Amino acid sequence: MKTIQTIAIIGASGNMGAAISKSLAKGNYRLLLCASEQDKVQAVADEIKKSKPAATVETVDCAVDASWEADIIIAAVPYAAEEKVAQKIREVANQKIVISIANPLNDTYDGLVTAPDTSAAEELQKLLPNSKVIKAFNTTFAADFSTPVIDGKQADAFIAGNDGEALQTVSELVSTAGFNPVIAGDLAVSGTLERMQLLLIQLNMKYDYNWLAGWKILHR
Ligand SMILES: NC(=O)c1ccc[n+]([C@@H]2O[C@H](COP(=O)([O-])OP(=O)(O)OC[C@H]3O[C@@H](n4cnc5c(N)ncnc54)[C@H](OP(=O)(O)O)[C@@H]3O)[C@@H](O)[C@H]2O)c1
After folding, report:
1. What is the DSSP string of 152-174?
2. Which of 10, 37, 59, 116 is deepest in the core (most CB within 10 A)?
3. For the structural domain made of 5-207, what CATH number should be given?
4. Mean of all residue pLDDT scores within the chain
5. What CA–CA distance (Å, rounded) separates 19 from 6?
6. Global pTM?
7. What is the pLDDT of residues 107-143, one digit of tens each?
8. To which H or E segment does residue 184 belong?
9. pLDDT at 171
10. To test the ligand 1 pocket, which listed residue (34, 40, 77) has its Cβ within 8 A of the most ligand atoms?
11. For ligand 1, atom 10: residue with the closest CA
12. Ligand 1 pocket: which residues have CB below 6 Å?
């Protein structure tokens, strides 16, 4: 029998952390929700328990404790907070999958703060050299999680990383969340994925998609 994976969501009180937590509660996972404001993260857990009483969800007030218990860690925090989070969890994230969802946007949303030859995910990998950093969920808006099928089409969610087994594991998470997983390549592809989301954000603001928009590769 497959053992139930434990997933720590750091930043579970935020837009993305809450959306990811709620969507993964559809799967057979143990979810550890973590954020600094306990009342906010407890509200997310309560909402999950109300809609899915069988879900295994707990709140943990410390990212280190949650990551220590977890098989998979999702860093659902702003890019600017990743270094601090990485320093805290480095030891306990050893050999574990750490999902980078960050888009390192500048303050005016018209560029990225990362250098052209790197990405938020690659920077996180440097900070966590003994973890398997996987890029995922950065090309999906938080609002898409309640409606991953847009205009009759299931939105794609791109994944990048250097470890084949970890990519498969994260593909299953993405499917559970309701998106079509597309493994785009190794971690170096993350820069492209982060720029794709910068473009989608700009298009969203220009054409008023109301944050309900996503990518879909059409193919046969
Ligand atoms: N919003 C989207 O549609 C979207 C889509 C794709 C990717 N993303 C990416 O997802 C990440 C989160 O975005 P968001 O929109 O969910 O932001 P958000 O609503 O502001 O949530 C941020 C979360 O991070 C936590 N946090 C902030 N600083 C922290 C620190 N130093 N240590 C630990 N936790 C910290 C916050 O909790 P406390 O306030 O309790 O610290 C909060 O739970 C960003 O990297 C963003 O680029 C967002």
Report:
1. TEEPEEEEEES-HHHHHHHHHHH
2. 10
3. 3.40.50.720
4. 97
5. 17
6. 0.97
7. 999 999 999 999 999 999 999 999 999 999 999 999 9
8. strand 180-185
9. 98
10. 77
11. 102
12. 10-11, 13-17, 35-37, 76-79, 81, 84-85, 101-103, 138, 141-142
